Amino acid sequence: MNKEKLLDLYRMMVQIREFENECIELAKSNATRAAVHTYIGEEAIAAGVCAHMSNQDYITSTHRGHGHCIAKGADLEKMFAELLGREGGYCKGKGGSMHIADLATGNLGANGIVGGGIPLAVGAALGIQLDNKKNFVVSFFGDGAANEGSFHEALNMASIWSLPVIFVCENNEYGISTHVSKSTNIQNIAIRAMSYGIKGVVVDGNNILEVYEETRKAVDDVVSGQGPVLLEMKTYRMSGHYFGDNQNYRTKDEVNQWKEKDPILRCEQILQKEYDLTEEDLLTIRKNIRTEVLAASEKAKLQPEPMIEDLTGDLFDQKFADIEWKSFVKAQGKG
Amino acid sequence: MRKISMREAVNEALHIAFNSDSNVFTMGEDIAVYGGQLRCSYDLLDNFGPERVRDTPISEMAIVGAGVGASMIGKRPVVELSYIDFIGTSFDQILNQAAKMRYMYGGHVNMPLVIRTQCGAGLGNGAQHSQSLEAILAHIPGIRVVMPSNAYDAKGLLLHAIRDNNPVVFIEHKALYKVKCEVPEEPYEIEYTPDVKRTGKDLTIVTYSAMVNRSLEAAELLQKEHGIEVEVVDVRALEPLDMEPIIRSVKKTNCAVIVHEACEKGGFGGELIAQIQQHTFKSLKAPILRVAAPNVPVPFAVNLEMSYLPDKTKITKAVMTCLENKKANA
Ligand SMILES: Cc1ncc(C[n+]2csc(CCOP(=O)(O)OP(=O)(O)O)c2C)c(N)n1
Ligand SMILES: [Mg+2]
What we know:
The structure holds two protein chains of two kinds.
Chain A: H1 3-28, H2 43-50, E1 58-60, H3 66-71, H4 76-83, H5 117-130, E2 137-142, H6 149-160, E3 165-171, E4 174-175, E5 178-179, H7 180-183, E6 199-204, H8 208-223, E7 229-234, H9 252-259, H10 263-275, H11 279-301
Parallel strand pairs in A: 1-2, 2-3, 3-7, 6-7
Antiparallel strand pairs in A: 4-5
Helix pairs in contact in A: 1-2, 1-10, 1-11, 2-8, 4-11, 5-6
Chain B: E1 3-5, H1 6-20, E2 24-28, H2 44-52, E3 53-55, H3 60-72, E4 76-81, H4 87-98, H5 101-104, E5 114-119, H6 134-138, E6 144-146, H7 151-163, E7 168-173, E8 180-182, E9 195-198, E10 203-207, H8 211-226, E11 230-234, E12 237-239, H9 244-253, E13 256-263, H10 268-280, E14 289-293, H11 302-308, H12 312-328
Parallel strand pairs in B: 2-3, 2-4, 4-5, 5-7, 6-7, 10-11, 10-13, 13-14
Antiparallel strand pairs in B: 1-8, 6-12, 9-11
The structure holds thiamine diphosphate (TPP) and magnesium ion (MG).
Thiamine diphosphate sits between chains A (63-64, 112-114, 141-145, 170, 172, 174-176, 237, 241) and B (29, 58, 60, 82, 86, 89).
């Protein structure tokens, strides 16, 4: 990979990390409401996957969706505004942290229902196929979601129709408090692909180069009509399930061990060893990004709350489609 | 008497049930080690062990369905859905399995299943974690729907539900978990019947769950500021629905306001109004009014969510309107 490309990926990961750090600060001061699920430790996945996507390629996301949203190119101020319940937020303050959608960048939305987005991705991929386009869809979901019926039904249907969709299972070892070994009796969720007749690949989700490369292969497969692919990204949720989680279900040791495998740290090591960047270079990048993120947050804080009159708006579209009905005469004698 | 929160009361009822009947067990997401997303099942694992206190995968269909199956052969499962919103991912097992079995199989099947879950808005959980879906459930013949409004009722109603041989969806409002009241330590049951939470002669508020407290606040205010005496009846069980205490109250006051948090259209208030007017038509002096949420999903932003929720002010206003109508028809 050339240096600029890797630096782009690095910047993206740092941007996500800094966004999440700021979210935690906002949660601490009660500026956000209810649970904020951060993506800390999993940044390489969103960054490495979405780097292959254009705005015409779609994603479906999860409750832990900030990273996906940012990697798809979202505007940070609008994201913060949504988290703070402001009028200028992506969903006008109606959605919140768990429900940001940004159709302009191909983000079909974060989802509060575990597994809820997986079938949606199948539908989007079907639409692309029906339109004979070369685009594709990525569905992000967790290890926990792989035990929902929606996962199994979606994979099967995508398989029989060879749909251009990549199922990205972010195996961060936990569904809230439940370790994956207690919810799932197999080593690799990727092997579930086999039972649906599709390709399944285990990927080191904390290694940005591997995520990028394996996704590239999967994209080649799905857009060339070879059917869906299941990528299992092995990673770790370095923060609590949400800010404020007591984490009584795991040890500090375990968390610390994974901190050594921090995807951003590993990317920095590569940048220093193989691309001659100095620690100072990296520090400057991080500082600049942090400044940008904080500026977005500050701007969002100044935004007004939604208008109360807007409470009942947005439920239905009053318009109907412009379809001109043409008469259809059935061929004779065919029932 | 000691005061405990509704969370503690539910936990206590579960401990009593586990201790009293070895057929009782529980399963759900994050309920064992973590003590539940509802934080009601703490200590159960330590006291009764992993056989009877089971963490499950994130598989609501299987959680409810396994509860249905186990109860068909005589176990008494108390399964937990961390949010009522997840009846979506488990609905077939509720709608077509749990609710139908006994009747469809000619009365041969018992189903001592309790599905505990939380409902309600107000805490910024957003559209998919804040709903009040009781009317959807109460519409299905064959399942009981119980909604306590305080810690005392929660304990007694939950023990009653666990001893019930029919499927019960037991809905705890998330805003009530920390609210404390006097609760005796010993086991007791409360039957599925409405409870008059405040007596009054001028108007009847029929309500349930978190809106009981809102209604009591309104009643207090109306008494203080206008000398109006409002009677507040807590429905407690939507199925079975015992109309008798409600009818008695409305016959006394000659008018009624229904208050629930669920959105108005198709809400349980419609059923209550239908039955009240049918049985009290001659004594009614005013159209029955509803105070409920508008017909939209629960919004996230704090100001939108607060204006979405029925509150003291909206209830007070409805009561005043109803009383004006009553006066005009007197
Ligand atoms: C249908 C449904 N069931 C349960 C939940 C509660 N819940 C929210 S996040 C979560 C854990 C999800 O685990 P996983 O899919 O591994 O994603 P992660 O949080 O690890 O990113 C659970 C159980 C939910 N939101 N939706
Ligand atoms: Mg997980």
